[in-house]
């Protein structure tokens, strides 16, 4: 309690032993170091449980990432990299640093193919994610109703996602075969000409999009179906009592309620599709020519085919990572402006 000056009647300095709290510890707790110490002291058990996972992730993900960034600033290739031949012959690495030379060559070099590959990769991603989301949303709405054999339909529709991607891709490669494929046999049975699904550049691009959509829509369907089942039925009942049409209920109740689920699904689908390696590599191997070559498959070819360019391939990988990070940041900011914080 503060002391009172008997001559003026005004409060004076705090009395010794008073209950005014000290400001030093509170200020210390407001600093980043203080907040970290407070979090460690309060949640030390949780930090202990998380530490092994964090260490494993740092070793498995962090070390290759740092190594890749370092290699992207060098001229490392198959000839100047470290080699171990037999048990006794060891050839040390002789590659040198080139700074940002790999990045400037990729982005602004005279023979760069980056912008063409980026355009196709973005087109592929937008088409696959957009159509997969619409198909998954439509199927989820249908399966959310009380229909006969609903469990069987759910099981059948989730199979493309359950089957390993390389098995599905090889199956589609056989189905789209020009001479022995099921699709061309079906077209010829209907009196239509056969289609060169995998060897015509324009048709090959459509083919890989179809296959990736077939692999992707079950994930969207399952996620959206879970979101639909969490919407309270009372909202639809109240809207029906107010005379709302089915379209109005879908537009003003279903879509806003699905926004948290759909935003996460779109983000994950975009990242997976942007880096979708198996479909392109196993179905067309980037061909015919480079018509279906994505950024990630092009980076793979630089590192593992012909004269293997490890430094340039690492630079391609870093650029892909930066593109996805920038997209995720802007996408998250857009969601926060709409009130969706995750």
UniProtKB/TrEMBL annotation:
Residues in ABC transmembrane type-1 domain copies: 118-331
CDD domains hit by this protein: TM_PBP2
Region (Disordered): 1-30
Keywords annotated in UniProt: Cell membrane, Membrane, Transmembrane, Transmembrane helix, Transport
Subcellular location: Cell membrane
A Pfam cross-reference name: BPD_transp_1
Chief localization: membrane
GO terms, biological process: transmembrane transport
Entry superkingdom: Bacteria
PANTHER family: ARABINOOLIGOSACCHARIDES TRANSPORT SYSTEM PERMEASE PROTEIN ARAP (PTHR43227:SF7), BLL4140 PROTEIN (PTHR43227)
Protein family membership: Belongs to the binding-protein-dependent transport system permease family.
Name this polypeptide is given: Sugar ABC transporter permease
């Amino acid at each position: 309690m503060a002391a009172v000056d008997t001559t003026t009647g005004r409060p004076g300095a705090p009395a010794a032993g008073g209950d005014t709290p000290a400001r030093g510890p509170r200020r210390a707790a407001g600093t980043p170091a203080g907040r970290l110490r407070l979090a460690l002291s309060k949640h030390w058990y949780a930090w202990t449980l998380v530490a092994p996972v964090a260490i494993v992730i740092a070793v498995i993900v962090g070390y290759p990432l740092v190594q890749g960034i370092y290699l992207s600033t060098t001229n490392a290739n198959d000839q100047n990299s470290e080699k171990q031949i037999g048990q006794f012959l060891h050839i040390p690495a002789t590659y040198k640093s080139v700074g940002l030379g790999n990045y400037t060559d990729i982005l602004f070099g005279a023979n760069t193919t980056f912008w063409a590959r980026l355009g196709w990769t973005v087109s592929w991603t937008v088409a696959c994610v957009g159509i997969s989301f619409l198909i998954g949303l439509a199927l989820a709405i249908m399966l959310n109703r009380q229909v006969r054999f609903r469990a069987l339909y759910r099981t059948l529709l989730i199979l493309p996602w359950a089957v390993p991607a390389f098995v599905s891709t090889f199956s589609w490669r056989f189905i789209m075969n020009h001479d022995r494929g099921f699709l061309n046999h079906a077209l010829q049975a209907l009196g239509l000409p056969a289609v060169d699904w995998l060897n015509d550049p324009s048709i090959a691009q459509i083919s890989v999009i179809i296959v990736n959509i077939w692999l992707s829509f079950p994930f969207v369907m399952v996620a959206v179906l879970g979101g639909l089942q969490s919407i309270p039925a009372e909202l639809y009942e109240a809207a029906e009592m107010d005379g709302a049409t089915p379209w109005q209920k879908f537009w003003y109740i279903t879509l806003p309620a699905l926004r948290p689920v759909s935003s996460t699904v779109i983000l994950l689908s975009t990242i997976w599709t942007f880096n979708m390696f198996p479909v392109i590599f196993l179905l067309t191997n980037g061909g015919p020519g480079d018509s279906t070559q994505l950024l990630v498959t092009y980076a793979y070819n630089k590192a593992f085919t012909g004269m293997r360019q490890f430094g340039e391939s690492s630079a391609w990988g870093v650029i892909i990572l930066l593109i996805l990070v920038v997209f995720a940041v802007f996408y998250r900011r857009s969601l926060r402006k709409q009130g969706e914080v995750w």
